[in-house]
Write the structure tokens for this entry.
Amino acid sequence: MSLYSLAKPLFFRLDAERAHKLSIAALKALPPKAPPAFDPVLASDVAGLRFPSPVGLAAGYDKDAEVYRQLLGLGWGSVEVGTITPRPQPGNPKPRSFRLVEDRAAINRFGFNSCGQPDALPRLQGRDRAAGLLGINIGANKDSGDRIADYSAGIASMGPSADYLTVNISSPNTPGLRQLQDEGALRELLARIREARAPGGPPVFLKVAPDQGEEEPRQIVRAAIDHGIDALIVGNTTVSRPPLRSPHAGETGGLSGAPLKPLALHTLRRFRAETGGALPLIGVGGIASAKDAWERIRAGACLVQVYTAMIYEGPTLGRRIAHGLADRLKREGMTSIAQAVG
């Protein structure tokens, strides 16, 4: 029996946000250890980075970059911290996070609660880069008079500490944020980001929503390619509501977990059709097993990210999915994860 299976009943007796904070405190008490040695068949090169495993932890868990070293030691191929905003902000009123246990899902309306980039930077500067790949997910403050300037500032301030940066314009919980996916606003944003990028700085990924109109994937892909974006993360939580059994089904916010899987897979396939493989894609949403990850990779994702399933399966889930993917690759007679993409 795993340590998490023993602790899970305690976590699930608490409300979701208190359990989240308790889990962060528990990980902080653990000494960081070296990442495990992954099967070489899992290694891949994406955006100039060598990922030892395609299974990463998505942003949203380690919001303020407090336990990324411990998480890397537990077997995630990469860890993305954040979303971190330029200035501290409390986020939306509580309660704002809900477990939908009957659906193996979650709904949140956090609203980029963040201690701010100046608070996180000391924990990121001078880190041991041999300890694993770290992505830093940046956002805009809710009350900002110029959200595009917030992203430019985040690129400049967080870039030196990141292996890659993620520009998050996909959260449904900051009013008006997803409007930055509209073609005109997106092109202005990406042009300003390009100006803010330092020569030789880290690659920049763009995180987009799974809720896409008919023309949006084409517009987003063209703008991303035109402005030198290195990869797209597809996607985030959804504002749609498939049939749900939980009594929390009516809560507002972004839905994640198992019910998101069909939409996330469909949206990934739409983006793959638009890119034709010319731009790396990272699949997110409803991934809970090696089978789910394999399906996303076959649909065109070079990498995958997990979060909500970790609530139900524990923090070593990334390593277990990686093992399953390595076995699948060998059964298929493949010698690298890249051979399976698309």
Summary: The two ends are 37 Å apart (CA to CA). Residues 100 and 248 are 6 Å apart (CA to CA). The chain has one domain: 3-331.
